[in-house]
Please model this.
Amino acid sequence: MKKSLLASFVIGAAFAVAGGFASDAYAAKAPKPKAEPAKPAGQVVEYAELENRVGETVAIDTTFRTTRTGKLVKWTQPTLTVDMGTAEKPMELTVPKETIVKITVVTPPAPPAADTKDAGKSGAKKN
Model:
C-alpha cells in the first residue's frame, strides 16, 4: 500500500513539474506588442480653424481609434469631407464632428537637399 501511495505521489509531482515547464514555454512564446505606426508631422488645429484650410492635407484621429489622412475637400459645422482616394479610384469620406479626437494639418515633407559636395563638377579628367 505504501509503495503504491509513494509511486502515485512521485508520478503526480512529476506531472506538476512538467506542467510548470510547459506553461513557461508558452509564456516565452507570447506575441510581442506591435509598434504604433508613425504619426504624420504637422500642426494640431481646432475644428473651426479648418474652415480656412480647405484644400490642405489633414490627418484626423477619431473616437474609433482610426486615423484618416487626405485632402480636406469640404468643411461644415457638423462634418468634414476628406478626399482619400487616387485619380484612378477617387474616395471621399465624411467624418462627423462628434467623432473627431484630434486634427493635424500635415506639413509636406521637405524636398531632398541637393548634393553640394560635387556641385559643378563633371566626371571628365583635367589635362
The beta strands are 42-45, 57-62, 67-75, 79-83, 92-96, 100-106. The helical segments are 2-28. The chain has one helix and six strands. The longest strand covers residues 67-75.
